[in-house]
Amino acid sequence: MEQTDKRKNLALISIMLGAFISLLDTTIVNVALPDITTALHATSETIEWVISGYALAFGIVLILAGRLGDKFGRKNIYIIGISLFLIMSVTAGFADSENSLIISRVIQGLAAGLFFPQINATIMDMYSGKSLGKIFGILGSVIGVGTAIGPLTGGLLIELFGATNGWRAVFFVNVPFVLVTLVLAMLYLPKRTVSTKKISFDLPGVGMLTIALLLLLFPLISNGANDFKPIDYLLMGLSIPLFIILYKWSVYQEKKGNQPLIAPNLLKNNQFVSGMLLSLVYFAAFTSIFFVLSLTWQTGFNRSAILSGLAISPFALGSVLAASNSYRLIPLLGRKLLMLGVALVIVGLGTVSIVFHLHDGTFSAWLLFLPLFIAGIGSGLIIAPLNSFTLSTVHGIERGGASGMFNTAQRIGSSFGIAVVGSVFFRTLGNTAATSKASAFSDSLQMSMYVNIALLIVCFLLIFRLPKNI
């Protein structure tokens, strides 16, 4: 029994490290973009694809990767994804041109999208009952920390290694984490228990889903915080009929006794769909917080990357503390726990906005410690229970596909949030009548916080769609 528990713990460390590095890499590179632009003599618009290419590739393969795990074994796909991620981290660090760096980052994003859905599905294979809630609490902590400390980690590496080599260290820092992950995965991740004969593969569904996600995500990610053009709205609009056709195709395949890429019965599962929708909206509000705060501290207040990262770190601290203990509160509060979490994030962000309103110009980051800590606690009470509630309603060979759909909803939410909140931020920045740069950024941040709060209110309303006991 003790040996079995040791193997499970080491397997758990492996997949938690995978979750950490994949989400760390969504934000760690942001602070290094100016140095990368200088070192590779690239335009800032082109080099932004170092961020966008990773996010786009990550998002479009998640559902496919989940089904690949169902078909060929989660351990096998996890190891392939992690190995590819390792190789691309090294090639990105040694990149000598903007094109080679962008190609490395796109393939690195594909690798992350390949192994990430195996994490949730493997957790559900290994744990159940109260233990499942506890493990999802740990995963929630990892998600919160990985996303929030990216700017701090990137700033620290640039501070240590300088502008010339610091941006390369941002990619090389993955290597030791990935090597440990890979060794532990090969030795301790459980092998598949379901026969591959029971699982078919839906190639037309793969094609339709990939195109639909590209049409939806490309405008959101490639434009980032810039204003949309008519062509962007057209592309996003074209994704809607494709998603409808994909659903009709999936229903047709299921009636024929085949297994479509998107299982229609998952979309009939009210708990799963409600949790997925709530996760999409919450990640739209959650991820964009770090984007506008980092921009304000670095560009608006002329603070270093490391100081900007430290200013945001109270959110990560609060998230870790709450997420790691949230499983204890789920049986007591049910969906009220999610309501409490959203309310705390609203209070925290509302207070952040007030702090910026009361101070004309730069001020100490200590004034933001408590409100960001409160918002982080709220976030920790949301992410882990929402993972547990949504994915625990799925069983058997559908777990990989369900995990991919759930993770895709989070990536779409993140991209949508950064595009919308960033657009409001820059539009306000361009129209403000503030007399100083710091005041202008403060005004813009306040306006973007109002958008975040509006999204959180939508989250609060969506919670009422969930069963009372999660």
UniProtKB/TrEMBL annotation:
<feature type="transmembrane region" description="Helical">
    <location>
        <begin position="101"/>
        <end position="123"/>
    </location>
</feature>
<feature type="transmembrane region" description="Helical">
    <location>
        <begin position="135"/>
        <end position="158"/>
    </location>
</feature>
<feature type="transmembrane region" description="Helical">
    <location>
        <begin position="305"/>
        <end position="325"/>
    </location>
</feature>
<dbReference type="Pfam" id="PF07690">
    <property type="entry name" value="MFS_1"/>
</dbReference>
<dbReference type="InterPro" id="IPR020846">
    <property type="entry name" value="MFS_dom"/>
</dbReference>
<feature type="transmembrane region" description="Helical">
    <location>
        <begin position="233"/>
        <end position="251"/>
    </location>
</feature>
<feature type="transmembrane region" description="Helical">
    <location>
        <begin position="201"/>
        <end position="221"/>
    </location>
</feature>
<feature type="transmembrane region" description="Helical">
    <location>
        <begin position="272"/>
        <end position="293"/>
    </location>
</feature>
<feature type="transmembrane region" description="Helical">
    <location>
        <begin position="365"/>
        <end position="391"/>
    </location>
</feature>
<feature type="transmembrane region" description="Helical">
    <location>
        <begin position="170"/>
        <end position="189"/>
    </location>
</feature>
<feature type="transmembrane region" description="Helical">
    <location>
        <begin position="337"/>
        <end position="359"/>
    </location>
</feature>
<feature type="transmembrane region" description="Helical">
    <location>
        <begin position="77"/>
        <end position="95"/>
    </location>
</feature>
<feature type="domain" description="Major facilitator superfamily (MFS) profile">
    <location>
        <begin position="11"/>
        <end position="470"/>
    </location>
</feature>
<dbReference type="InterPro" id="IPR011701">
    <property type="entry name" value="MFS"/>
</dbReference>
<keyword id="KW-0812">Transmembrane</keyword>
<feature type="transmembrane region" description="Helical">
    <location>
        <begin position="12"/>
        <end position="34"/>
    </location>
</feature>
<feature type="transmembrane region" description="Helical">
    <location>
        <begin position="46"/>
        <end position="65"/>
    </location>
</feature>
<keyword id="KW-0472">Membrane</keyword>
<keyword id="KW-0813">Transport</keyword>
<protein>
    <submittedName>
        <fullName>MFS transporter</fullName>
    </submittedName>
</protein>
<feature type="transmembrane region" description="Helical">
    <location>
        <begin position="449"/>
        <end position="466"/>
    </location>
</feature>
<dbReference type="InterPro" id="IPR036259">
    <property type="entry name" value="MFS_trans_sf"/>
</dbReference>
<feature type="transmembrane region" description="Helical">
    <location>
        <begin position="412"/>
        <end position="429"/>
    </location>
</feature>
<keyword id="KW-1133">Transmembrane helix</keyword>
